[in-house]
Amino acid sequence: MASNLDFSLTLSLLFAAAVLLQWLLRIWLVSRQVRHVARHRATVPEAFSNRISLAAHQKAADYTLAKAKLSLIDITLSAAVLLCWTLLGGLDRLNHGLLELMGPGLGQQLALLASFAVISTLIEMPLSLYQTFRLEQRFGFNQMTLGLWLGDLCKSTLVGAIIGLPLAALILWVMGSTGSLWWLWAWGTWTVFNLLLMWIFPSFIAPLFNKFEPLADESLKSRVTQLMERCGFAAKGLFVMDGSRRSAHANAYFTGFGNSKRVVFFDTLLKQLNPGEVEAVLAHELGHFKHKHITKRMVMMFGVSLLGFALLGWLSQQPWFYSGLGVDILQSKYLGVPAENNALALLLFMLAVPVFSFFITPLMSAMSRRDEFEADAYAMQQADGAQLASALLKLYEDNASTLTPDPWYVSFYYSHPPAVDRLARMPAPSGSL
Ligand SMILES: [Zn+2]
User: Fold this and answer.
1) What's the 306 CA to ligand 1 centre distance in angstroms?
2) CA atoms of 298 and 352, how far apart (whole Å)
3) In angstroms, what is the span from residue 375 Cα to ligand 1's centroid?
4) pLDDT, position 47
5) 178, 236 in Cβ contact below 8 A?
6) What does the pLDDT read at residue 27?
7) How far is the CA of 285 from the centre of ligand 1 (A)?
8) Which of 162, 96, 166 is nearest to 335 (CA)?
9) Cα(33) to centroid of ligand 1, in Å?
């Protein structure tokens, strides 16, 4: 029979190999993207030559290249940090320190989760600051002041603590006191909590960060309302969000569900697009709703998290799961109290699973791209396809999205098909350059 030590060593090796493979794959994909975009920087692709200026094309290329180069640092840093937390013993040390300080119990476990979250945020902070105030700034997208950035950070930490700590306490309590089927109860708690969060998010959380005002433009409003009636979509309101406070990137989205459902337009979107184009973009979003993409994704997420909790339920009982990921519970003086390791099990699980699930990213991206084509097709039935095409082109140009991405990079990461593939299925864009 294989010993615990064998399993532990096997897990360590598997994990290290997966981290390395993931790192290599990500670096390879980004360097492909960099080479591809740089190679096509000199000329606007034929399909867009009478619509997109060379200056806009080159801005998109430079922006894409700058982001890609920054992501090389991000990829390497996150792989290193992950190894530090796990195999190099970071989590083990943090856990022991807190045990010395507080003794075992729910308090110590919550402190472990909270300090992990705080340390992770601190590690990510320099890169996030650089991204906002150097990179986005350089291309004219950033609208934030340092004050607003710090305010956001304080608010999101506070909201995270107010929502996250009670949830974590509840999950840890469920794990420790509902017997061997705890993972089923924990999954139920998690699912109910997520639904609740989706329900309260639009009315209570999003307004903490942005101002939402009812859509005032009457002609656009009646146009959009007619479209929604045609499509059989009942939303509680049409709102304009002051996205321009933070960024010049434009967007529109649906949020909430049930009777809290609303349509949100970024003010930047309304500034860039004419009413016909806004209608076409909304029709695309309604296409996602009509094809039940959001519901399907939610059901899939809940199904996957059920499997996840079941797996966690089993793994958390295996000493090799901890030792294989660098946490030596066998030498802890608190050994033998399995419930005392629940927070550790959660953290290790959250750190380890993405390393392995990364490899199905292309599958998820392909599904998402198929959904986008479906939503485009629906939009062309319900609104003007030429307007949708010209809206897309404007958004690509204003967001400086590259028109010449690397095909491998696209199939791995892109949640939306590249512009050239989407436009190929649409009538020629309306209006002129
Ligand atoms: Zn879409």
Assistant:
1) 27
2) 23
3) 6
4) 85
5) no
6) 98
7) 6
8) 96
9) 23
Element spanning 265, H or E:
strand 262-266
Q: In angstroms, what is the C-alpha Rg of the chain? A: 24
Residue 2 confidence (pLDDT): 60
pLDDT score at 13? 97
Residue 185 CA to ligand 1 centre (angstroms)? 34
> Parallel, antiparallel, or unpaired: how do β-strands 262-266 and 238-241 relate?
parallel
- Which pair of tokens denotes residue 150? 């710090």
Q: Which residues pair with 239 in a beta bridge?
A: 214, 264
Residue 115 CA to ligand 1 centre (angstroms): 37
Q: How far is the CA of 369 from the centre of ligand 1 (A)?
A: 8
Q: What is the mean pLDDT of each run of 10 residues along the chain (433 residues)?
A: 80 97 98 97 91 94 96 97 97 93 91 96 94 93 93 93 94 91 95 91 90 92 91 84 89 72 88 93 92 92 96 92 87 57 93 96 96 96 95 91 96 95 92 56
| Other beta carbons within 10 Å of 100 | 9
The SS3 of residue 213 is strand
- Please give the Cα distance from 258 to 261 (Å, whole number): 6
- Cα(417) to centroid of ligand 1, in Å? 10
pTM summary value:
0.89
